[in-house]
Amino acid sequence: MAGNKLEGEPPKFFMGAVVNPGADPIEPQIIKMEKKIKAGALYL
Q1: Does residue 40 form part of some domain?
Q2: For residue 7, what pLDDT is reported?
Q3: CA neighbours within 13 Å on the CB side: how many for 23?
Q4: Mind listing the pLDDT tens digit for each residue in 1-44?
Q5: Whether the Cβ atoms of residue 44 and residue 19 lie closer than 8 Å to each other
Q6: Separation between Cα atoms, residue 30 and residue 21, nearest integer Å
Q7: What integer pLDDT is reported at residue 9 of this predicted model?
Q8: What is the pLDDT at residue 1?
């Protein structure tokens, strides 16, 4: 932060995404979820 060098291991980030399990109809949400997983989402 602010141009200061980090010491030790670099931070590790996990990409996540949102899914609406209450959507009606659910099928478009499933399609979007599959795309998000293919794009690298590690948790939903």
Answers
A1: yes
A2: 84
A3: 13
A4: 688 887 888 778 899 999 999 999 999 999 999 999 999 999 99
A5: yes
A6: 9
A7: 86
A8: 63
Encoded tokens for 38: 């293919």
Contact 36, 28 (CB under 8 A): no
Going by C-alpha positions, the residue among 27, 4, 29, 28 that lies closest to residue 19 is 29
Structure tokens at 11: 């931070």
Number of domains in the chain: 1
**Does 5 fall in a domain?**
no
6 occurs within a structural domain: no
Question: Does residue 26 sit within a domain?
Answer: yes
The pTM score is 0.68
Is there a contact between 33 and 19 (Cβ–Cβ < 8 Å)?
yes
Distance CA 4, CA 16 (A): 27
